[in-house]
Amino acid sequence: MSRHPLHPALVHFPIACWSLAVAADVAGLWFGETAWRWSGGLLAIGCLMALIAMIAGMFELSHVPEGAPMRMVWWHMGLMCVAFALFCTRLVTGLENMRLQEPDTLSLLLDAAGFICLMAGGWLGGTLVYHHGVGRSSNQNPPPSVK
């Protein structure tokens, strides 16, 4: 009996939290503090859950099957580490006296760069799972071939 990998189950939390934090910051341009006030908590939860997901991913790296495109694995890891760094930086630079401040130009640039890395890294992670079968049990059907 094989175990279910933990990393794919955990990644949904930082993806959702960071995406919603970016949306809250952008919505804050029109709706003010009512919208952007949410981003601090979402960023903090996203960063914490990303750290847990990254640790799980590192432990599961040794289970990547032979023949999997390791170059894609390294790109996925690199992009997600950059996204993590950008969103952590966004959180820390947005605080003053431990209180979240209204997003400024730097905040929105960090949001945009982090979101781009998040989407690109997430796309690579999805490709690894759904196209190359990384994380799939050996007794499952093979991934469908792409023509």
Tags for this model:
147 residues; mainly alpha; two-stranded antiparallel sheet; elongated; transmembrane
Structure, described:
With 147 residues, this protein is mainly α. It has one domain (7-130). It has helices spanning 7-10, 12-31, 33-60, 70-93, 105-130, and strands at residues 95-96, 99-100. The protein has a two-stranded antiparallel ribbon. Strand 1 (95-96) and strand 2 form a beta hairpin. Helix 2 (12-31) runs antiparallel to helix 3 (33-60). The longest helix has 28 residues, at 33-60. The radius of gyration is 17 Å and the shape is elongated. The model has no long low-confidence stretch (mean pLDDT 89). This is DUF2231 domain-containing protein. It comes from Citrobacter enshiensis. Residues 3-136 form the DUF2231 domain.
Would you spell out the secondary-structure blueprint of this structure?
Elements: H1 7-10, H2 12-31, H3 33-60, H4 70-93, E1 95-96, E2 99-100, H5 105-130
Antiparallel strand pairs: 1-2
Helix pairs in contact: 2-3, 2-5, 3-4, 4-5
Protein name: DUF2231 domain-containing protein
Transmembrane segments: 39-61, 73-92, 112-130
Domain DUF2231: 3-136
